[in-house]
Amino acid sequence: MCCVESTWAAGECRLAFRAMGSALRVEISGVTDTHQSRLACWTRLTEEAARCQASGVLAVDAREGTLASPGQWHDVLASLDIDALRTMPLAFVGRWPRYTELEVLNLSLIERGFRAQVFDDEAAAERWLRYGEHGGAWPPGDHFSTKARSNT
Fold first, then answer.
1. What is the per-residue pLDDT for 122?
2. Among 8, 16, 22, which residue's Cα sits nearest to residue 89?
3. Which of 83, 133, 140, 147 is 20 to 30 A from residue 126's alpha carbon, by CA?
4. pLDDT one-digit tens code per residue, 127-145
């Protein structure tokens, strides 16, 4: 069963976890300007998703600071034990300019065999997790919030 609401911080990176039916919603905020901070955040996100046995992850990106390059994301993914995430769909939500950074991360994950997608609208990301090409993350009748959310 998925987690209860909790928060985690390392340096200036903050994660806020919330159960969303059997999936996990994670809001990523603060600054992740270094390899170490990106790796710490993604390690914690991965651990929580595995601990919760989440059916999918909705990562809402509200970070500040400089954008990571494709090479920087490659280095993070190479350093991260992310096999636990391979079994679940990953939906990323970000606004410009973070959207372009998330697209780089998304493509890197897809190249590694993950089911991932980037959105600029949280409600669309939730729908993809529920009904997307991966076959849907939730069985019919699950307690899934269909309330539209804005991430502005």
1. 92
2. 22
3. 83
4. 999 887 655 444 333 333 3
End-to-end CA distance of the chain: 30
Return the pLDDT at 147.
36
Closest by CA to 63, choosing from 91, 102, 19, is 102
Q: Do residues 3 and 48 make contact, with C-beta atoms less than 8 angstroms apart?
A: yes
Among 112, 124, 1, 110, smallest CA distance to 60 is for 124
Whether a cis peptide bond, with omega within 30° of 0, leads into 97 is: yes
Phi-psi region of 17 (alpha: psi -120 to 50; beta: other; left: phi over 0): beta
Q: What angle do CA 7, 13, 19 make, to 5 degrees?
A: 30
Phi, psi (degrees; rounded to nearest 5) at 31:
-125, 130
Alpha carbon distance 128, 11 (integer Å): 32
